[in-house]
């Protein structure tokens, strides 16, 4: 019987298989950041162990880093200690590190792909759940806990039980205003935050094949929000074109050998998935969340749902709690929800394509009065590219703040936070209670919806803007 | 890791589903560089409410958390497990756990037990009816037991794969176990294709 993409990559990494035990898998790439690594390095010290494969390990700083005044000492002493701890650990153990101020610094999941380290058919781990992002290249990539970080540092392997596989097939052409973010939010709303639990998802079908690498990363990134272990997309010409010439991509004969292998990484026609979900791409529309988990979303044209409409008592209860926390009432049109803050950034939507699309909407427009808009590139490289294209000027001319690279308001470990009761439209991935700051309220959106929302001051899509423009003479915009 | 064989303790009923790790331990606690001292951050936002289950005096000192479905979703932070342990929990019961959280908990000796929702409902009722009631989480027999208010015994079997159970029962260190297969790792390393990426050219 044929095998799925996930099974092929899994099988190629089995170091040891024994009856009644989890497989021992080899890890090709281990990414580190400051938050989930200190206790792992401490563990190594305590047991007198070394990092087994420094050449498969790389670290950057992202979660705690400020996005303003990066040349000044970090104000929060606890954040500073955590960054200093990473620097000391990397120096002591010999790990390659890209600290704040370095040209390769940025959100760990933006840095790996742009260096060309994330490659098809590799296993990639990081002490961060959004490691699923790297699956966009046909890599088997998943988040791990700190004990596992220590395990990989010491052994370059992980004992793992083989997950089941689920195909998510999206057929048909996506409507013009529908982005990868809308698609993944719609998928999560359909299968639920626990729907992918225990599975590796493979996104496939004609709509997926047409997506750029950036868009594929947005989709795989949020696999974890559906509860999945990982998300993958089979590598193809789009993947190879993205990789060719990058710093760590193979060259010459090695490139040819690699591509030959990468081309075998497709699910066989006679392979069987443990579960299958079919999505009609043509039926999708811009999608936003109204609640406090990423599965609580709806098309932008819809209204806030009535909790009473849920049959499942725990879903009903969770919807009631969500509306209370979010300060929303059932039946209210989503388009009428006013926001205070718009955040464009994160490992979900902080890549160059995301900034380009947000900028194209803000070009010669203004952020609405009373709305604060933060644009935070996913990495220093993304920032430099944006500056080279003049995007930073577009953002600042519109009244948005152009910041330094990092996780920033995605989780508010640095000073970029919502105040209690403040409401944001955010291109990040989690709308959990307090995620962007204590008492803050988050609506997850695409970069396009974020930009249109910034201009109009309420949740909106670019289509709403053209209607608004039509009512305003061009010169007055 | 501390071994887990069987534990008997009182229950905190947490009637919430989708308890994500941002609720279990908020991000600002993640700046600590140690494994201890997280107990005050556990469910920090909800603990402001005096009615929250953890704040109710009758549940003080309880060691078994019984929560709604999809417990531990979201971030991979192991700090969530440490916070529960630092606070004093030995086991968590739910009808469904997020994968990473479950893996993290078993690695630290916090037993996560999956029971059907009707059994979870029954334990909630027992604990709400009598906060002094105790449940026993028996890993050797893979069974949860408690006395119902009418005196009958509630007993439910749970599944846990044999390997994870063996590691927990013996409190075994994963890394030491893996390193027993050193020869296999070295052999695998010798067979990796040369086109695979490297972060540094050593
Ligand atoms: S951008 Fe957000 S989701 Fe991504 S790694 Fe940073 S904090 Fe996590």
Q: Explain this structure to me?
A:
- The complex is a heterodimer of chains A (477) and B (202).
- With 477 residues, chain A is an alpha/beta fold.
- Helices cover 34% and strands 16% of the residues of chain A.
- Chain A has 17 helices and 19 strands.
- A five-stranded parallel sheet of chain A has the order 5-4-3-6-7, with helices on both faces. Chain A has a five-stranded parallel sheet with strand order 17-16-15-18-19. A four-stranded parallel sheet of chain A has the order 11-10-9-12.
- In chain A, β9 (164-171), α6 and β10 form a beta-alpha-beta unit.
- In chain A, α2 (38-47) crosses α5 (146-155), α6 (180-191) runs parallel beside α8 (213-221) and α13 (352-362) packs parallel to α16 (447-456).
- The mean pLDDT of chain A is 96.
- By secondary structure, chain B is an alpha/beta fold.
- Chain B has helices spanning 21-24, 79-87, 99-108, 117-129, 162-170, 174-179, 182-191, and strands at 6-14, 64-67, 91-94, 111-114, 134-138, 143-147, 153-157.
- Chain B has a seven-stranded mixed sheet.
- The longest helix of chain B has 13 residues, at 117-129.
- Chain B is globular, with a radius of gyration of 19 Å.
- Classes of the chains: A alpha/beta (477), B alpha/beta (202).
- At the A-B interface, α2, α3, α5, α10 and α11 of A face α3, α6 and α7 of B.
- The structure holds iron/sulfur cluster.
- Iron/sulfur cluster binds at residues 62-63, 107, 109, 128, 130, 346-347, 407, 410-411, 428-429 of chain A.
